[in-house]
Amino acid sequence: MSAAPHVPVLLDEVIAGLAPAPDAVVVDGTFGAGGYTAALLAAGARVVAFDRDPSAIAAGQGAADASNGRLILVPGLYSAMADGLAALGLDAVDGVTLDVGVSSMQLDRAERGFSFQADGPLDMRMGGEGPTAADFVNGADEAEIADVLFHYGEERQSRRVARAIVAARPITRTGELAAVVRRALGHRPHDKKDPATRTFQAIRIHVNRELGELEDGLAAAERVLKPGGRLAVVSFHSLEDRIVKRFLKERSSVAQGSRHLPDATVGAAAPSFEGVARAVRPSAAEEARNPRSRSATLRIARRTAAAVHAPAPSHALPQGRRFQ
Hints:
alpha/beta, 324 residues, seven-stranded mixed beta sheet, 2 domains
């Protein structure tokens, strides 16, 4: 794992936030190249690591075999961690960490279709199952494409891009899709940010149901953490961080009554998290070493002994205006 191509972001801060005691059991919900897991093992913890990407599980098998049982790899979604732990005879753990979003290994392999930096098939599936990005752009209607681009990519000209995509179909390669978006929005080689970035982000999030998975995964962490257990979540863009921030705010707040509604606290769920730390971001030195860390945000909280809160509805596209 030490030679992995993926550089874990905010590694020291994540481990400090989890503060694993010797033989603590920690869930690494997004194993990837195993950077957080390796540091947790070095700190004396035992790790149950989940990953939906079969190639990540396969790459980590050697580390699991050499761990003397201290690392268990579980293929699958981190939102299913409660079931995965139960199958191992575990009902509660001391820590959960999530490094959400796409990994460097996925971005850097053209055949996975996540990036326009090198041409490849328009796939984008993290787990290799279900409809591909090509299925979406070639099968969805213009309005649905525009909604996805606007809400998941924050693309203000989502309708213009959606019209261009529909007019250019079929689109089967990452290079083709990037070219369509650039033509629709205008692209100059010296522009700081490629205009296709927002579209690729949006489609990737949609194909993998990433925001719904994050919401479900946070609720799963709430279920499996022991009282005093730590949650550490690293996100990479505002959509993800907003979900984490809202979750922790809701779970750590106490309903307040008023003279108009004095019974507002009656029946309200007690806070299931406490000690919510201020957001942590990479230092200038880390950003220089690893430019992909620049947008990262770490949030840490501690589980209380309160019961889990009622489940909230999974993420769905909000209704709202699409820009032209």
